[in-house]
Amino acid sequence: MRIGVPDYARAFWWCLTAAWKSIFEKPGRPSLIWEKIHQPPDRGRFPPRVFTEHTLNEFHQGMTFKCRYLGNIDKGWVIHHLRRWTPSRRYQLDTGFGARDLRAHHRYRPDYVLRALVKICTNLLIHLAGPELVNLQSFPAAVGYVTDGRRLQLNMTRSGFVANADLKSLDCPQGCHRFFLRHDKRFWTGVLVFFGGRLGAMVSFPGPPLPEWLSAAITVPFNGANRPWEVRTSTLIIPTREMRVEWNDMQQLMPSIPQKF
Q1: 3-class DSSP state for residue 187?
Q2: In degrees, to the nearest 5, what angle opens at C-alpha 87 toward C-alphas 93 and 26?
Q3: 60 to each of 16, 22, 247, how far by Cα in Å?
Q4: Among residues 191, 181, 102, which one has the least CA distance to residue 134?
Q5: How far is 188 from 205, CA to CA, in rounded Å?
Q6: Residue 115 CB: number of other CB atoms within 10 A?
Q7: What is the pLDDT of residues 75-118, one digit of tens each?
Q8: What gap in Å lies between CA 199 and CA 185, rounded to an integer?
Q9: What is the pLDDT of residues 38-47, one digit of tens each?
Q10: What is the pTM of this model?
């Protein structure tokens, strides 16, 4: 019996699909084995990205594949394209000379992102004002949203990741995160700048004002755990410039990371 290229591709895909799924279904013993590339080539192409050492007559679901990668985020890029590839349709990946640029794939659930943003803000309020003033009784919608994802419907056009260009005016120092909180008209708004300005987000949620201040700026070093936090509070409502919420354009969100899909 003669095996053509389409038959070989279908058999390869059938076994490879079981291998990448095993990462999630059998994390203790996956069939996809990661091999780290420690140095990208100065010229020419990378070695084969995904391959198997088994011959065609040994193909079966559960056989091992090897996958080469540069960094942990590169693993997500590989899995993303393995999910999309099927032999029944043409699927062309970019090929070319080896590059030192990071290739990244971003996959997230917006509802989890919003819950995480509200959690960061409520934790900051608890840190500054204490659990006596910030708790489930005083902030029922926000705290309930963090714990079970209910009680709050956030507007995704006004909460989420923000365009990186809008973060420059917030002057986040390198090696730090910087967070801004303010209360206005029964709502708290948090503007969050991460990793020295590489990524930012904002979120608004209902809650009562605090008795001693209405706005705060918190600078948190992430390089050097012993460095103190810098906290400034004010009884005035100190606005930040208008922020543009963006969920999809990663070039706008994280221009410091080269994007290629």
Answers
A1: strand
A2: 90
A3: 9, 14, 40
A4: 181
A5: 5
A6: 19
A7: 777 887 788 888 877 655 554 444 444 455 556 678 888 999 99
A8: 27
A9: 776 666 566 6
A10: 0.61
Output phi, psi for 139, to 5 deg.
-125, 65
| Cα–Cα distance, 183 to 170 (Å, whole number) | 18
| Site of tokens 């679901």 | 61
What percent of the chain has a predicted confidence (pLDDT) above 90? 40
**Tokens at 125, concatenated:** 């309020």
What ranges do the domains of the chain cover? Answer: 5-84, 110-253
245 in Cβ contact with 199 (< 8 Å): no
For 161-182, how does the pLDDT look when each residue is reduced to its tens digit (9 = 90+)? 999 898 888 888 888 999 999 9
Give the CA dihedral 165, 168, 173, 175, nearest 10 degrees.
0
**Which residues touch 203 (CB under 8 Å, ≥6 apart)?**
114, 117, 118, 121, 154, 159, 160, 189, 190, 192
User: b/e map of 34-73 (b: 16 or more CB within 10 Å)?
Assistant: eeeeeeeeeeeeeeebbebeeeeeeeeeeeebebbbbeee
In 3D space, the residue among 79, 155, 141 whose CA is nearest the CA of residue 111 turns out to be 155
Helices (H), the chain: 5-25, 72-84, 110-129, 140-148, 250-253
Encoded tokens for 133: 């003033």
Backbone angles phi, psi at 251, to 5 degrees: -65, -35
Q: What distance in Å separates the CA atoms of residue 20 and residue 261, rounded to the nearest whole number?
A: 19
Does 242 or 192 have the greater pLDDT score? 192
Instruction: Measure the CA–CA gap between 149 and 181, rounded to whole angstroms.
Output: 22
Q: How distant is the alpha carbon of residue 71 from its chain centre?
A: 15
